[in-house]
Amino acid sequence: MLDQDLIAEYYLLIGYTLECLLKGYLLAILPELVQNGIRIDRLIVTHDLVELCRDANMTVSDEENQLLGFLTQCIIWRSKYPVPLKLADTPSPLEPPNQPQKVQNPFSSGLKGVLDDLCIRAGARLEAERKRLNP
User: Fold this and answer.
1) Which of 14, 19, 31, 52 is the most exposed place for a label (fewest CB within 10 A)?
2) Dist. CA 82–CA 86, nearest whole Å
3) Crossing angle, helix 111-133 and helix 62-73, to 10 degrees?
4) pLDDT tens digits, the chain, 135 residues: what are they?
5) Strand 34-35 and strand 39-40: pairing?
6) What is the pLDDT, as a whole number, of residue 85?
7) H-run or E-run covering 94
8) What CA–CA distance (Å, rounded) separates 27 from 21?
9) Which helix (H) or strand (E) holds 80?
């Protein structure tokens, strides 16, 4: 039962991991995103993992895309607050929940493998770019 209490934190941390890997990759391939060495471009100032994957040209499946949308919500509010910070982000009680069906227990549903794969792929892109820049 106590493991269930940690699932929200797991999603928050895995979301942060993906966010950092993708932003690191974007900064490596587009150093001009840091303007004058002090200001970060709007392209990189987002928590939207779907958008970051798209900007990094990382191909994702429909299932991964849905999961990235859910993780984005976890980063912004779902893992930290009982309701979204913006009224516009409040899920409608009339619509099905905007989360993958497997999210209740990622460890028994195989979802952890999908998340691990996303992190491995994002990390490999960043590492390849790092090696290219520093042979």
Assistant:
1) 31
2) 12
3) 90
4) 456 667 888 889 999 999 999 999 999 998 888 887 778 888 888 999 999 999 999 999 998 998 899 899 889 887 777 777 777 777 665 554 555 555 656 666 678 888 999 999 999 999 999 999 888
5) antiparallel
6) 77
7) none
8) 10
9) none
Q: Which residue has the tokens 């009680």?
A: 93
Q: What are the start-end ranges of the E strands in the chain?
A: 34-35, 39-40
- Residue 18: name the closest of 62, 63, 67, 77 by CA: 67
91 φ, ψ to 5°? -65, 140
Give pTM, 2 decimals.
0.82
Domain count, the chain: 1
Q: Residue 83 is inside which H or E element, if any? A: none
User: How far apart (Å, rounded) are the C-alpha atoms in residues 119 and 32?
Assistant: 25
* Residue 43 · residue 26 · CB < 8 Å: yes
3-state secondary structure of 99: coil
pLDDT at 106: 64
Count other Cβ atoms within 10 Å, centred on residue 92.
8
**Tokens read off for 104:** 């209740």
- Structural domain boundaries enclosing 28: 2-133
